[in-house]
Amino acid sequence: MQILRKSGWAGFEKTLKMDRKEVIKKVKESGLNGRSGCNFPTGLKWELMGKGVRYLICNANEGEPGTFKDKFIMEKNPSLLIEGIAIASYAMGIHKTFIYLRGEYSYLKPKLERVIKQSEEYLKKINLKININLGAGSYLCGEETAIMESIEGKRPVVRQKPPYPPEVGLYGKSTCVNNVETLANVPLIFLGGWNNKLELYSLSGDLKKPGVHEVEGGIKLKQIVSLAKPKTEPKIIYFGASGGCLPYKKFENLSVGYKSISEQGCMLNGRGLIICGKNREIVELSKIFTEFFLQENCGYCTPCREGNFRIWELLKKIGCRKGRKSDLNLLQKLAYYISDTSYCALGTSSTNHLKCALKYFKGEFLKLCK
Predict the structure, then answer these.
(1) 73 pLDDT band (50/70/90 cuts)?
(2) Are residues 124 and 73 part of one domain?
(3) What percent of the chain is modeled with pLDDT above 70?
(4) CATH at residue 330
């Protein structure tokens, strides 16, 4: 796998012979985009950083259900990540960086600390200090401004934008946030032979071989799924909890990419695919995902907090065969009201799974209604 390639800090040493602007230009020309959910050009994000004191945050929260590719990198090739952080920090003139590590990944903290200590001779060259902040398990901290609130010791509530982090970020200073996979790819750009088309996908669900696979972007859905060897005929593909779902048979020949997936009303997010077999019931799956958002919402806004609870009640009612056809209309309305009026991206995406389920599997809901 390309992402497991060992650089030995050769990429970093090459960048030290370059001007900072040249490093950013090289990253821009490489075509590296953010490997999280927004797919924003990495070099451009670095270029937009303001003046004065600056910070870099490595987003290692990775809370999206079905996504574990960043964990894979930190387990198998953590030195590549630390080198990527160093290159990014040098390019942006940053001297203090934070790795915001998901609470459930706490066992990785000692390993990362060892790698940072072993890398001191390189980090000293650019006077860089790397801190590791352990999250408390909040899904909301996958959002960049919620991470900043958490690092500052506050309740992790999403900030309103603008201003954007490159203008006013952590402690009111210009801040860049990149995730683990994005930063781990940076050293490979300077080593040569890097393939921008290769991406990591996390595959889980009713599979014989779940795990992380590295494939070229644009690959067909059925080709990705076949790598993990389904236990039974796939029925539904979920793109994490917030990315929505698609019926497998109808879309097995769909080329997988941010644009192609969004055109079907879904989001690729962190490229986590949850494959559910033919014996899974869509109403029960919808209830499980709704329960997840009930547990993870911050409680700040009414649409997300109360609306998802009402959806859960209706799904429970339908699952017990006590629902009416009119309940489906109410489910549909609630799903769109929550999506349109919630305060942050957690709320606006919390009903994507249900909107897709009602669009593609409405017959299964109707069978359980009077």
Answers:
(1) very high
(2) yes
(3) 100
(4) 1.20.1440.230
